[in-house]
Amino acid sequence: MSKVTPITEQFQHFVTDLRESFWGDLYGRTRQVWQQFLDRESQRERDRYLGVGWYERTGESEREYRNGFYEREYQTILGSLRLRVARSRKKGFLPKALRAFQRRTEEVTELIREAFLRGISTRQVGRVIATATGEAVSAQTVSQVVKSLDQAVREFKRGRLEDEWVYLFLDGVSLRVRRPAGRQRVQMLVAYGVRADGTRQLIAFQRSSGESQAAWEGFLEDLYRRGLEGRPLQLVVTDGCPGLAAAIQTVYPEAKHQRCWVHKMRNILERVRKRDYDAVKRAAQAIYLAGSRPQARAAFERFRRDWSQRYPGPLRQLAKDLPELLTFFDFPRHLWKKLRTTNAIERCFVEVRRRTRPMVCFVNVESVDRILYSIFNRFNETWRDRTLRLFTQAA
């Protein structure tokens, strides 16, 4: 084994040197050619404007003549180009290949935007760009670039919604935002829908101070006004928030309501003693793992008989919520596992938390909107040509 290691290291060094020499030389030459081309293009545009060659004069009445050059930085995926822009007495001649007042190519702009949306701070983004272009960008520049997402966010929030959703999953995610009074948490209310053909989409999100009935009603009424009137809507799945449950009855009273079993199990088990934890968990799981609604009710009665003396509070709450916890039994058996929890939307929140964890705290609420829009848009693009096959199967 000791003889193999030096050969492996030597080969790795060879590959690294080859990559650096070949690609470094190729990128350097390409950048040089582009810089020369753009410099000449700028001079040609000035010559066409003046209409005279070198050492020739324009008419005395025009008083227009060549007036040297000025330098301008332009960032590209090949690195930073320092261009010599020709100018006359009255104007400069930025090559038409470059859009006026744009200091970087669209590829570099997209790289800045993507780095920020991946959870990298505005200051750190500059270092990331430097590795690609050889030139760092300031935190102010990064902020200006990501603000270009604001229009897309507004269109996403105000766009027309088709009334085509059969299953609706609703939940909220909490994020920290910097405020004048200090760091505060802002709640994002989120809607995820599944159509009859099994296609899915993150439909909407909205900022809120909490998850009260008024907050959820405002969110659902906005969905209704935008076109989601709920005619084909069969089931709304929630985490069990009382305010949300009341809001559903106000806006979508015809839809059935399913409470999430994951949240319910968490609420039960957090009040159970350690020595009873496994036994209580098995007894509670037997309710939703039953083969029918009658069997589930029988499992609940056994659970109540065995544990009501030790844990009367959780048992009373479970008995109260049981009808909405067993709604999934009204649907085809192959959908039970999908419909009895909010896991579908919770998986999206895992990605939200992963992306936002490096940021620690958002500078403002607009940054929160940009991040969520980007993450949700990426999910929706990924799901565009995919279907949840379970939702298309026959009962």
Task: Give an account of the 3D structure.
- The protein has 395 residues and is of the alpha/beta class.
- It folds into 3 domains: 1-72 and 83-96; 104-158; 162-392.
- Helices cover 50% and strands 17% of the residues.
- It is built from 14 helices and 7 strands.
- The protein has helices at residues 4-50, 106-117, 122-133, 139-146, 150-158, 213-225, 242-251, 261-269, 277-288, 293-307, 312-325, 336-339, 343-356, 365-383; strands spanning 66-76, 79-88, 165-179, 182-195, 200-208, 235-238, 256-259.
- The strands form 2 sheets. It has a 5-stranded mixed β-sheet, sandwiched between helices.
- Strand 6, helix 7 (242-251) and strand 7 (256-259) form a beta-alpha-beta unit.
- Helix 2 packs across helix 3.
- Residues 1-7 have low confidence and may be disordered.
Q: Radius of gyration, Cα only, in angstroms?
A: 31 Å
- Helix tally equals 14
Binned, the helix content reads: 40-55%
Shape category: elongated
What's the count of strands? 7
Which percent band covers the strand fraction? 15-25%
Question: What's the mean pLDDT score?
Answer: 79
Q: Termini, distance in Å?
A: 59 Å
Strand-pairing-aware structural class: alpha/beta
Q: pLDDT under 50 segments (min length 5)? A: 1-7
Q: What is the count of distinct domains?
A: 3
Strand order of the largest sheet: 5-4-3-6-7
- The SSE order reads HEEHHHHEEEHEHEHHHHHHH
Largest sheet: 5 strands, mixed
Provide keyphrases for this structure.
395 residues, alpha/beta, 3 domains, 5-stranded mixed sheet, two-stranded antiparallel ribbon, 14 helices, 7 strands, elongated, disordered N terminus
